[in-house]
Design a protein that fits this description.
Layout (H helix, E strand, L loop, with lengths): L6 H15 L5 E5 L2 E5 L8 E6 L11 E7 L2 E7 L4 E4 L2 E4 L14 E8 L2 H14 L1 H10 L4 E7 L5 E5 L1 H6 E4 L3
Antiparallel strand pairs: 1-2, 2-5, 3-4, 4-11, 5-8, 6-7, 8-9, 9-10
Helix pairs in contact: 1-2, 2-3
């Protein structure tokens, strides 16, 4: 069992607070894939992060599905494509449904969440992945302070993307599949 579900997001927030306490106003903090960025890159361009295609791949990076521009936002992605195992031809992801005690089974492949706090983004991304696509959309509608990109598979196995209005505003580049 791994209980670090939002420890990395919390750690990003702590490091960000330390950096700001030193008077630094432009920075990016990344710990284990969870990110908080503020201000601009040293080249005076925006901070950009990539959202990977959710292809099963335990060891290396996947191609980017989307590029996102961050400023004063925490970002976290939770997915089922890195930590899983296959037994008797069935894939079991590492996210556990608290109602059943078993790994989740739904068509949501990854959830990326953007908010003013990385711990909120981190914990929410995990929760959305467990909820699945439809419940996640309902949850996001009730929480306009959160923005998200949900990547899921349709009946034919094709990637589909749901973006909140705010997430669409920070998406700067969509890569071809």
């Amino acid at each position: 069992m791994d209980f670090n579900a939002f420890a990395q997001g919390y750690s990003v927030d702590l490091v960000s607070l330390l950096i700001e306490s030193k008077g630094i106003t432009s920075y990016l903090v990344e710990i284990g894939g969870e990110v908080y960025a503020k201000g601009k890159h040293p080249t005076n361009s925006p901070w950009l992060i990539g959202i990977e295609q959710p292809m099963d791949n335990k060891s290396t990076s996947n191609p980017y599905q989307l590029i996102i521009e961050l400023n004063a936002l925490g970002a976290a992605t939770s997915g089922n494509y890195r930590r899983y195992f296959i037994e008797n031809g069935v894939k079991y992801a590492h996210h556990i449904d608290p109602k059943t005690g078993y790994p989740t089974k739904n068509n949501l492949l990854s959830a990326s969440v953007f908010s003013r706090s990385c711990i909120v983004s981190d914990a929410t991304a995990t929760g959305l992945l467990v909820m699945g696509l439809n419940k996640s959309k309902v949850y996001l509608k009730k929480h306009p302070e959160l923005d998200a990109i949900l990547i899921y598979s349709d009946e034919l196995g094709n990637y589909k993307i749901f973006e909140t209005k705010g997430a669409k505003a920070i998406s700067v580049k969509l890569e071809e599949n």
